[in-house]
Design goal:
Elements lengths: L5 H7 L12 E3 L12 H4 L7 E3 L19 E3 L19 E3 L8 H10 L5 E2 L2 E2 L1 H26 L10 H18 L8 H19 L20 E4 L1 H6 L2 E2 L2 E2 L25 H4 L1 H4 L5 E8 L14 E6 L18 E6 L2 E6 L4 E8 L4 E12 L5 E11 L3 E6 L4 E7 L5 E6 L6 E6 L3 E6 L12 E7 L4 E6 L7 E6 L2 E6 L8 E2 L3 E7 L2 E3 L4 E6 L4 E6 L4 E6 H6 L7 E4 L1 E7 L10 E4 L4 E5 L5 E5 L4 H5 L14 E3 L5 E2 L9 E6 L5 E6 L4 E6 L1
Parallel strand pairs: 1-2, 2-3, 3-4, 4-5, 9-38, 22-26, 27-32
Antiparallel strand pairs: 5-6, 7-14, 8-10, 10-41, 11-12, 12-13, 13-14, 15-16, 16-17, 17-18, 19-20, 20-21, 21-22, 23-24, 24-25, 25-27, 27-28, 29-30, 30-31, 31-33, 34-35, 35-36, 36-37, 39-40, 40-41
C-alpha cells in the first residue's frame, strides 16, 4: 500500500488544504518515500501545484506521468536518483535542486539544462547563460559534426532509389558510428555528448533526409542488416498503447509461434463433475481486472489482434537487503514480450514505461538478472538487466534504467524457446533452442562503456525441442529440469565436470491411463517450493505435482535412467488438448496459475497441502484438486461482439500475489489485482 494518501497530501500542504486542486505548495520530505509511492493517479489531481519538496527520501527515479502541469520549483535533495530525463514532463520548471544524489553526475546537469527550457536555478546556481550555451551553441556544434559525419562517410552509401531494407541498414550503421566518432567538449561530458549525438542523428535522418522507416515492411529471416532496434520514451510508448475497452476491429487469431494441437470436437467444452462444482467450492480471492492493454502491435497498429504474447516476468527489486524476503521484494513493474517488442509496464497505473523493438524479431522469452556494474572509476552500482530472445536465435541484453540495448549474443542458429538466469550466478544465462540444445552462457559484466565478453560454458543435448526450463532450487548449480516436446528431462550442470557437451541424466515417466509413459509433450514446468514440481503435459485436463527429490533419488547412481515421477497430486484443469498454454507458480503464497483456451485463469491455492507433501512419507492426494477460483475473461466487445477465441498463453503473478498479468493470443495484456 502506498504511503501517500489524499489525507496525507492535504495535511502536508502549505498551508493545509481541504481540496487537492487548491494545493500550490506541498512538503513531502523525510517520509522514506520510494518511487512506487508516487501514484500518478493521485498526483494528477494536483493541477495547481507549483512547489514540491521531495527531499530526504529514497527515490531512485521519477514516474513518467505525474501530470503536474504548473510545477515551477522542485527539491529532490538527498535521494537515490540515477536518471533525470523523466523531469522533462515538467516543462515550466524554473528551480531544481537534487544535491546529494550520489549517482547523478555533471552529465545529468547538462541533460536537465537541455530538457527544461525555463530552468533558471540548478542546485542554487544561476545557470541561465550556461543553459543557453548547451541548448544553442552546443547543439549547433554537434549538429554540424553529425551532418559532416554523414556527408563524409555515409551519403554515398545511400542509392538514389533505396529500399526500406537499405534504409534500416544504413540507419543502424550511422547511429552506431556517429555516437562512437563524434566528440566535443571535455571527456567528463562524454555521456551527455553521446546522448545528444544520438538524438541529433535521429532527427537528422528523419527530418533532413526523410529517412522514415516503413513499419509495414515484412521481416526477413536471416538478414541481420535489416534489423532495426529502438527504445521508445515512456511518452512515445504510451501513445502506442490502446487501453482496451471497446475495440475498433478484430482479426481471427492464427498461431505463429508453433502449430497448436487443437482440441478434438467438443473436447474443450466438456466439464467434469468436480469442475461443475468449482464455483460452489471456490475460495474467493477477490481479484479484479485493472487494465487491458494492446502494447505489442506490429507497427503500432491498433488493428493488430494477431500478435501473440508469450512471456512476462516481474522486475527484481534492487534493494539487496529486502530481496531476501520475496514478499518484501515484490515489484509492480513487469516486462512482457511478444511480436517485435518488449514492454515494461507499471501494473498499478497501466502505464507502459518503456518499449523496446526489433523489427525483424519475434520475441518468445525474457528474463531478469541484477549485475553490479562499474559506473565510474570509483563507484559500482547494482542494475537490472533484461535478456530477451526469440525467433532469430539472438539474445538481446538491455540495461533498462539507461534505455539501452548494450549487446547481443548469437546463441543459436534456430529460434530460442525460453531463457532463464541462474539465481546464484548472476551472469549465467541458460538458453533453450529449437536446435534441441540448452546452452549455458556467461554474459559477463559490462564496463562503463558497455564493453562485455560473453562465453559459452556448457551445452546440454536434448532429444527434442526444450520448451520450459527450471533450475532445481536446492541445487541450482547442479541440476536443471526441462519440459520438452518429447518428455521431461534432467541434466547435471555442475561446471567442475570435464565435458562441455552433455546428454540428459534422467527422463521422467508419468501416468498415462493404465500405464506409465515418458513420451509426451511437457509445455508447463515450474517449482512450487524447494521440492514440489508442477508440470503440465499433453494429457488433457490434468496438471501434475510431483516430488523432485523422491523421484530423482530413485534413479541411483549411474548414467541415463528412466525414473517414475513420484506424483503428489493432480490438479483439475481444462479438458482441452491444446498445447503451449503454460503455467506458473507463486511459491511465497503456495499458488499455481494456468490459463485456458477460453481466456480464463485457473488459480489453485495449495498452501494447505505443501506441509504434508514435504514429509518423507507424504502421501499422494487421492482426488484431483479443484481450482480455488477461475477468473473468467470479461466481456470485452469488438465491433459489438465478443472475440470468438482468446487463448491465455501465459499468466504470472508478482511474488506477493498482488498483481496477476495475463498474456493472450490476441495481443491483449490483462492485469488483475488481488484485493
Amino acid at each position: 500500500m502506498s504511503k501517500i494518501t489524499t489525507e496525507l497530501l492535504l495535511e502536508r500542504a502549505v498551508p493545509r488544504s481541504t481540496r487537492l486542486r487548491k494545493i500550490e505548495t506541498l512538503n513531502l520530505s523525510k517520509l522514506q518515500l520510494k518511487t512506487g509511492d508516487l501514484d500518478p493517479r493521485l498526483f494528477s489531481r494536483l493541477r495547481h501545484l507549483q512547489k514540491l519538496d521531495l527531499s530526504d527520501n529514497l527515490l531512485d527515479k521519477f514516474p513518467n506521468s505525474l501530470t503536474l502541469p504548473d510545477l515551477r520549483v522542485l527539491n529532490c535533495n538527498n535521494n537515490q536518483l540515477e536518471d533525470v530525463t523523466a523531469l522533462k514532463q515538467f516543462p515550466l520548471l524554473e528551480e531544481l535542486t537534487y544535491e546529494n544524489n550520489v549517482y547523478l553526475t555533471l552529465n545529468d546537469d547538462y541533460k536537465v539544462m537541455f530538457l527544461l527550457e525555463n530552468l533558471r536555478l540548478l542546485n542554487g546556481k544561476d545557470i541561465t547563460k550556461l543553459a543557453n550555451h548547451v541548448r544553442h551553441v552546443n547543439s549547433r556544434k554537434l549538429t554540424s559534426k553529425v551532418t559532416a559525419h554523414w556527408e563524409k562517410f555515409f551519403r554515398d552509401q545511400l542509392p538514389e532509389k533505396y529500399t526500406a531494407e537499405q534504409v534500416k541498414s544504413i540507419r543502424k550503421k550511422f547511429l552506431k558510428s556517429v555516437q562512437t566518432n563524434v566528440v566535443y567538449g571535455p571527456s567528463s561530458l562524454s555521456e551527455f555528448t553521446r546522448w545528444r549525438v544520438k538524438m541529433i542523428a535521429e532527427e537528422f535522418l528523419s527530418y533532413s533526409l526523410g529517412l522514415e522507416l516503413n513499419s509495414d515492411t515484412e521481416p526477413e529471416e536471416k538478414a541481420e542488416e535489416n534489423e532495426e532496434e529502438s527504445t521508445e520514451s515512456p511518452r512515445e510508448a504510451a501513445e502506442d498503447v490502446a487501453q482496451v475497452g471497446d475495440f475498433s476491429g478484430y482479426v481471427t487469431v492464427t498461431a505463429s509461434k508453433r502449430k497448436r494441437n487443437h482440441s478434438k470436437s467438443g473436447a474443450g467444452n466438456k466439464r467434469s463433475k468436480s469442475q461443475a462444482n468449482t464455483e460452489e467450492e471456490a475460495e474467493d480471492v477477490s481479484a479484479e481486472p485493472l487494465h487491458f492493454l494492446q502494447c505489442h502491435s506490429k507497427g503500432n497498429s491498433r488493428e493488430d489482434f494477431k500478435t501473440q504474447l508469450w512471456s512476462c516476468v516481474f522486475e527484481p527489486v534492487l534493494d539487496s537487503g529486502a530481496r531476501k524476503d520475496p514478499i518484501v521484494s515484490s515489484s509492480r513493474t513487469v516486462a512482457t514480450c511478444g511480436g517485435e517488442s518488449v514492454c515494461l509496464i507499471d501494473c498499478e497505473t497501466g502505464t507502459v514505461l518503456k518499449k523496446y523493438k526489433v523489427a525483424t524479431e519475434e520475441f518468445f522469452s525474457i528474463a531478469w538478472t541484477t549485475l553490479t556494474m562499474v559506473i565510474s572509476k570509483s563507484r559500482k552500482k547494482a542494475h537490472n538487466i533484461l535478456a530477451a530472445a526469440g525467433r532469430r536465435g539472438i539474445v538481446k541484453l538491455i540495461h533498462v534504467a539507461a534505455d539501452f540495448c548494450y549487446g547481443e549474443i548469437k546463441a543459436h542458429k534456430k529460434p530460442i524457446a525460453t531463457v532463464c538466469f541462474s539465481p546464484t550466478q548472476e551472469t549465467h544465462l541458460f538458453t533453450a533452442s529449437y536446435d534441441k540444445r540448452i546452452a549455458l552462457w556467461d554474459i559477463g559484466i559490462p564496463d562503463c562503456d558497455y564493453n562485455f565478453k560473453a562465453s559459452q560454458l556448457l551445452v546440454l543435448e536434448a532429444t527434442s525441442i526444450p520448451l520450459r526450463i527450471a533450475l532445481v532450487p536446492t541445487c541450482p548449480e547442479q541440476y536443471l529440469l526441462a519440459g520438452c516436446e518429447g518428455g521431461c528431462f534432467a541434466w547435471n550442470i555442475k561446471l567442475d565436470k570435464g565435458e562441455k557437451s552433455r546428454p540428459f541424466e534422467a527422463i521422467f515417466q508419468f501416468p498415462d491411463d493404465e500405464s506409465m509413459t515418458t513420451s509426451h509433450r511437457v509445455d508447463g514446468l515450474a517449482f512450487l517450493n524447494d521440492d514440489v514440481v508442477v508440470s503440465k503435459s499433453s494429457k488433457p485436463g490434468c496438471i501434475y505435482l510431483w516430488s523432485w527429490s523422491r523421484s530423482f533419488d530413485a534413479k541411483g547412481k549411474g548414467c541415463q535412467r528412466t525414473v517414475s515421477a513420484v506424483i503428489l497430486a493432480e490438479l483439475e484443469w481444462s479438458t482441452t488438448d491444446m498445447s503451449y498454454l503454460t503455467l506458473s507458480t507463486c511459491p511465497a503464497k503456495g499458488y499455481v496459475f494456468c490459463g485456458d483456451e477460453k481466456g480464463s485463469v485457473w488459480m489453485y491455492n495449495l498452501s494447505s497441502y505443501t506441509t504434508g507433501w514435504g514429509s518423507p512419507k507424504g502421501k499422494r492426494s487421492e482426488r484431483r484438486i479443484s481450482p480455488a477460483q477461475i477468473l473468467q475473461w470479461p466481456e470485452l466487445r469488438v465491433n459489438g461482439e465478443q472475440p470468438p477465441e482468446i487463448l491465455v498463453n501465459n499468466v504470472v503473478s508478482d511474488a506477493a500475489f498482488t498483481y496477476l498479468v495475463v498474456l493472450t493470443s490476441v495481443n491483449i495484456t490483462a492485469i488483475w489485482k488481488k484485493s
